[in-house]
Amino acid sequence: MLHGHEIGRVEVDDKKDRVHIGNIQILPEHQSKGIGSLIILKIIRQAQRQEQPVTLQVLKVNPARQLYEQLGFVVEGEDDTHFKMKRA
């Protein structure tokens, strides 16, 4: 929410051994403004308090992979379409 308007969505799954970001979407007109980074950093801080790693997967064609790498995620695996990433 930004100024009372929905600008995206995020799905977070607190699993037994990790925190998984299942989906994060920011409307195009609100992208590249640091909003996604702030959301992910908040999730990372919460996971650190729980002493849990954070995982996610990203489409191989999605340029958001660069953002995730800047935030400390590394590729731990892949399939035909996605990179599976983790931040310890």
UniProtKB/TrEMBL annotation:
<feature type="domain" description="N-acetyltransferase">
    <location>
        <begin position="1"/>
        <end position="88"/>
    </location>
</feature>
<dbReference type="Pfam" id="PF13508">
    <property type="entry name" value="Acetyltransf_7"/>
</dbReference>
<dbReference type="InterPro" id="IPR016181">
    <property type="entry name" value="Acyl_CoA_acyltransferase"/>
</dbReference>
<protein>
    <submittedName>
        <fullName>GNAT family N-acetyltransferase</fullName>
    </submittedName>
</protein>
<dbReference type="InterPro" id="IPR000182">
    <property type="entry name" value="GNAT_dom"/>
</dbReference>
